[in-house]
Amino acid sequence: MIGFKQIALTGMMTLSTSLTPVSAEIAYSNSQLSALSLMSLSTITLQQADTIEASMAFANEGNYADAIAMLRRLEATNSENIEYYISSAEVFLKATRGDEVIIAINKARLKGANYDRTALLFAKGYLIQRQYSKVLEIIEEANLLEAELYEATLVKADASLNLRNRDQAELLFRQAVRMKPDEYEAYLGLSTMALQVRQMADAESYAVLALTKAPDETMVQYNLGLVRRFRGKFIDAKGNFDKAIELFPANTLARLERASILINQNKTLEAERDLDIVYSLSTDNQMAYYLSAVIASRAGDLQKADDLLSKADDLVKRYVPASYVRGLVSFELGNYPVAETYLRLVLNAKPNRHQVRKTLITALVRQQKFKLAQRYLAPYLKTTTGGKDPVALNLAGVVQSGLGNFSIGTRYFERAVEAGGDAVNTGGQDPIGAIESKLALAQYAAGRVDQAITALQKSSATGSARDLALLAAVYVKEKRFDEAKDTASKLIVDFPTRAIGHNILGTVYLAQKAYDAAITSFEEAVRRNQGYTAAKRNIAIALSAKEDYGSAETILREIEAADPSDYRAMALLARALKEQGRWKEAVKFYRSAQRGIKNSGAMMADYAYCLLKAGNNEEAAQVASRNARKFNNDPDALIVFSDVLLETGGSYMATQLLARVVSFRPADIQSQLLYGRALMRAKLYAGARSSYARVQSMAKAQNLTVKSLPWYQAELEVKAGRVDRAELLLPLLKDDSRPAEVSGAIKGEIYLRLLKFGDAELELERIYAAESSSREALEQLVEAKLALKKDIDAARLLEEWLEDAPLDLAIRTKLASLYKRQGQIKRAINTYRSIFNLGIVDADISARLGRLLIETNDIEATAMVDYAYKMKPTDPYVITTAGLLELKTKRKPELAVDYFQQAISRAPGIAENHYFLGLAYKRLSLRAKALEAFKAAVKLSEDFPDFNDAKRQIEILE
């Protein structure tokens, strides 16, 4: 095993310096939150004030979970108001949950909180979210009070520093010093900047200045400790970290730095106590995971270390010491693709680390990446040390053989022996002897099958079990099954107590689809070697081939529990779960398996499909689009990727993938059907018709009947708006021939478009009863009910759907619109409010709710409409709503005219905007203009709610 005890935790503070001053103050300051300053915003009850104060007391102690829980209880009592939301934002800010800060401030503003007074808090939320440009934009647009300028300057400096605008950041920090020379925060900023560029004397000077201003501030002590640790003053640094923790026990940064010092001092138990406290305060702290992984790897628990490092992947990728540990741990576990990834990161940053280079090359060799291995090996071999290093020379022999340069490879092997080497890799495995078998494998990897088999026959003549097994494995891959059986039988006879012969014989039977015989052979192998994981995996493969997925799952779960790094077992387990329709469980194992299996298009296609079926549409689309490029020569994988993309809105890319599949399989009818449907989804209707016409020609040439084709064609014609063509296909649409991807609601939709609402209702009720999860059938059925004036039935259907799918925003919006149409304004308002209660902040919904509040003369209308207008000031619907507010609530028709004219200029074809403009002109006694506007509305459409009133207004004005 590689010596993990020699890994020293140097340089951890490099990462800590990326936490800039305001970010640190937000997260770790021992300054106290107070709700008293918020009380002036509006009237609240004493009980509510007590709850808010108690919550902030928890936050000040670093107990964010209880602080947030207390505020949630207040929310559950329907007591939320401006104070509640701003207090929540303060607590979320302290807990560094920037997304929650933003949501809380948005809700406070909806309740009427002043935009300028909440701007600084809003900006800090975005600062935590690392949206630094947004931070600067918010502060620049706000009209801040003089008392807020100092803190705003610090926030801007922090954002500028993170945007790598160091000059601007320094200017702002110095400006803050001039504004408040007795405060410490700006000095912390200047110290951090100096530390980042290794100006250590300046960093310590600024840190000491900050200490003179605020010796009892936890982040001041922490910053000075950081500088001293960076300068090698570990005892002094630990003293500062001790003091920082004493001042504020929830200072996780100080605890992490102290833990790293304790680990280097081999005081593991003390370090773990600090880390336990960090986990209790921050359950997903990546630096804590890394430090725990170092402790685990030093103790030899590599699997635990690997699990911890996986959780800290974002940190590991950008922090060289953590990348190195992850690379070594993965290498020792045999996970060479992962080892390669992280060792390359280390070598890119530290090119003279020769041990890292050799470990990386070994990982590449074990993946047969010989060209890449040669690229990394060549510079080292040219050095004096590398030219005499037996491990490097041995690796060079393997690499050259793998590239087909067998004579050169042989010379390197001989030089390695002369240099005193006895191992082919850094782990001390594989003796340098048996050069012939090494060369044979290199020849086989290079595609020289006959030479490889000849060499293996020669090397196996000595009776070596290893060489016989290699020869048998090559026979299996080349489908020379009789020779493979003979070789496996020889292994069984010559080595009766060994398991390998039975495993290879089982592999032969498996390749011949003799699954029962294969299982018997694999079980014989396991009987001889209870720890023979490959044979156990093979049993599961054979069971899956027999469609006995439950038994396969049981075996694979046992393997995975014994070795969580067995990625092949994970992938097989995921597939077994997929075949049983257990999508979410399958996703979990595919997500883990892909870390170690990088070149399987079939696995990634299954992963994308399971993500889709599990409801993770966005991730499914990302996995499909990314891997479609990688596996663009695998038609089976491309079909699955295209299917996923079709379901997630990526129809254009799906057409490109299926066009490639068709080029691979020009005579395959199913591929043509899929291609045609993809073209339809991309609204390329002529292309889809051509594809379906090719299907008809292919079927005729092959003397086949494609019963599902009319369904595809009917779907196409409906989507293309050619309901006349779709009607002709109705007699051919039989339920038993409908493909799964075409909705059964398509017949009902044809009847709808033909205005045969009764037939549509009957057909859609039949389909919806059979497919109650079909959203398309629901929407079509609701449309039919509304056309038949069955509004109550339509509302009931939507309400029942939302009971099972409460987050379906489109259906909830449709239900609110239906309530409005029925005159149930209060229910419509409550339905729109429920959308906000789900945490969805949307300009369109705000505007729709605003219109209803205007109709009911609700005082909240102004805040709601203003909020919508601030979010989308160019949206015609929102602009019109702002005009209605001026017209009906504020009684300012002259301003309303301006809004309505803006809306018309952006969307001239919307009749009701002209109608509203007419009302505004009439209020201003501009009769001619009003008449013109009403006539324009009537001319544009008869299908808007106030059509009859518009006609009446015309009659009155004329």
UniProtKB/TrEMBL annotation:
Asked if the record carries the keyword Methyltransferase, the reply is: no
Q: What's in the keyword line of the UniProt record?
A: TPR repeat
Q: Which domain of life is it from?
A: Bacteria
Each TPR repeat occupies one of these ranges, namely: 218-251, 499-532, 911-944
Q: Which Pfam families match?
A: TPR_16, TPR_19, TPR_6
Q: Which PROSITE patterns match?
A: TPR
Matches recorded under SUPFAM superfamilies:
TPR-like (SSF48452)
* Keyword Ion transport belongs to the record: no
Bilayer-crossing residues are none
Q: Which residues form a coiled coil?
A: none
Report the protein name in the record.
Answer: Tetratricopeptide repeat protein
Species the sequence originates in: Temperatibacter marinus
Lineage, uppermost ranks: Bacteria, Pseudomonadati, Pseudomonadota, Alphaproteobacteria, Kordiimonadales
